[in-house]
């Protein structure tokens, strides 16, 4: 059961409207690493969690907070759009290029959202449920959560430097702080999972004896130069060997004969370059 408290978690009042910045803020709502993503990611992780108690509560507490972050951002977008599109359009038409894009604002916010936020990113691309990670393995999920919060904080930091509005900056300062603590909590939760004996270093901790033991401790050197092997923490420190001259282990990656009904181009004996016609063309190209 969820209850809606009719107060924002933090204030969302810009000093003045800014429809162009409202479009930019859409990334923090419906982008791949926006608040809708972490909201749904944590909700499904919590609902799928098989352990009642501290881990599930941590996930659900954070999920519920993230709903509030979506509300804050949606409120800020609506307030930044106050007076748009009429005022923005009037200003934009002074410049023909800007007029063509309605001053840089997202016209969908006016046409579809009625001057409000949308479940979409800053280019108007709809939010997608495929953005979320909720596997049921808490180690894998918590690591994904750290990455999601890191990317979200990175984008928030970039947007923080794209505005001078003190009201917007104050809200983003709060968001930055919450992204910081969420990264810390997931990192700490990973350590506690391991301390509780629920997970190890590798996710999942199964089939370690079944995997190919020759290839579970090597990094293939596939970049020019020797620099990769200089990373002590992922070589000697982690018990990993840098394989400097790796050789392919499989045969040619030849696709099978196509189904005739699919009309795939096919040469049964040799590739097209090896045919008489192909060789004649190659010779002609050399002569010319």
UniProtKB/TrEMBL annotation:
* Pfam families referenced in this protein's UniProt entry, alphabetically: Mn_catalase
Give the protein's cofactors: Ca(2+); Mn(2+)
- Textual note on the cofactor: Binds 1 Ca(2+) ion per subunit.
Keyword field: Calcium, Manganese, Metal-binding
Region annotated Disordered, chain positions: 246-266
SUPFAM superfamilies found in the cross-reference section: Ferritin-like
Binding of Ca(2+) occurs at 57, 61, 223, 225
Q: Does the keyword Cell division apply?
A: no
> Which residues make up the binding site for Mn(2+) 2?
66
Annotated binding of Mn(2+) 1, by residue: 35, 69, 149, 182
Annotated CDD domains: Mn_catalase
GO MF annotation list: metal ion binding
Q: Which InterPro entries match?
A: Ferritin-like, Ferritin-like_SF, Mn_catalase, Mn_catalase_dom
Protein family membership: Belongs to the manganese catalase family.
- Report what the protein is called: Catalase
Q: Origin organism of this chain? A: Amycolatopsis rifamycinica
């Amino acid at each position: 059961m969820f209850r809606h408290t009719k107060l924002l978690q933090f204030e969302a009042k810009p000093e003045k409207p800014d429809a162009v910045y409202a479009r930019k803020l859409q990334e923090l709502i419906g982008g791949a690493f926006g608040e809708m993503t972490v909201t749904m990611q944590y909700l499904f992780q919590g609902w799928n969690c098989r352990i009642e108690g501290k881990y599930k509560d941590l996930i659900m507490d954070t999920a519920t907070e993230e709903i509030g972050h979506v509300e804050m951002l949606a409120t800020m977008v609506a307030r930044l759009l106050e007076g748009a599109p009429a005022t923005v359009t009037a200003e934009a038409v002074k410049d023909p290029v800007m007029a063509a894009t309605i001053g840089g604002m997202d016209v969908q916010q006016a046409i579809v959202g009625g001057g409000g936020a949308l479940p979409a990113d800053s280019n108007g691309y709809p939010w997608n449920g495929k953005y979320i990670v909720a596997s049921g393995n808490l180690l894998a999920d918590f690591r994904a959560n750290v990455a999601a919060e890191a990317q979200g904080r990175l984008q928030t930091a970039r947007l923080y430097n794209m505005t001078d509005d003190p009201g917007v900056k104050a809200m983003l300062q709060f968001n930055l702080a919450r992204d910081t603590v969420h990264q810390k909590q997931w990192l700490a939760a990973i350590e506690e999972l391991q301390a509780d004996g629920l997970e190890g270093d590798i996710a999942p901790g199964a089939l370690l004896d079944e995997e190919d033991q020759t290839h579970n401790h090597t990094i293939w050197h596939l970049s020019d130069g020797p620099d990769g092997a200089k990373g002590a923490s992922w070589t000697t420190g982690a018990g990993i060997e840098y394989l400097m001259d790796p050789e392919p282990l499989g045969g040619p990656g030849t696709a099978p004969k196509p189904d005739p009904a699919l009309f795939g181009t096919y040469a049964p004996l040799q590739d097209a370059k090896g045919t008489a016609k192909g060789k004649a063309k190659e010779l002609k190209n050399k002569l010319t």
